[in-house]
Amino acid sequence: MTTPSDNRLKINLGCGNKRLDGFIGVDRFPCEAVGVLCDVSRSLPFRDSSVDEFYLDNLIEHVPDIPALMAELVRTARNGAKITIITPHFTSLSSWKDPTHLHHLSYFSFDHFEKMSVRHYVGSGVKIVRRNLSFGGGLLGIIGRMIFSLSPEAFEKTYCFIFRASTLRFELQVVKQ
Known about the structure:
The chain is α/β, with parallel strands linked by helices. The protein has a single domain, classed as Rossmann fold (3-Layer(aba) Sandwich), CATH 3.40.50.150. It is built from five helices and seven strands. Strands 3-2-1-4-5-7-6 form a seven-stranded mixed beta sheet. Helix 4 (138-150) packs across helix 5.
């Protein structure tokens, strides 16, 4: 098991076979990169306010209850902790070809966790620090990037199935009251 060298608790949640330097690998299936076995659809085996950073690479789309997982991340994270989430965009073939994907997410999916009006059922405690949407290459990718740079909302409402996107990356910060 790899442990962080700076005494900060950093978790690679749903790591699979992807080892990440300085992070403890957590997954429900045992393999070489896993240091802690855990089903992320249940409670996480970490103390309240103990984790400094979470990294979720192609995990969130597999989780049955995203608000419950987000609540667990907030519970176990320190105030100011970083959460990085990487997932396919809902127009990407990668989002649909894996039959274990339960969710197909958009550039705006995590906005929901910042809305006061829905905190009673999705929880709260995170703010979006940065987000990125990547595209494939070629002319269609260039056009998609151009439309998206003008208006992410117009892109997702009107043009996304013509100029398909690839991967979403969210960087969230835990904000505890």
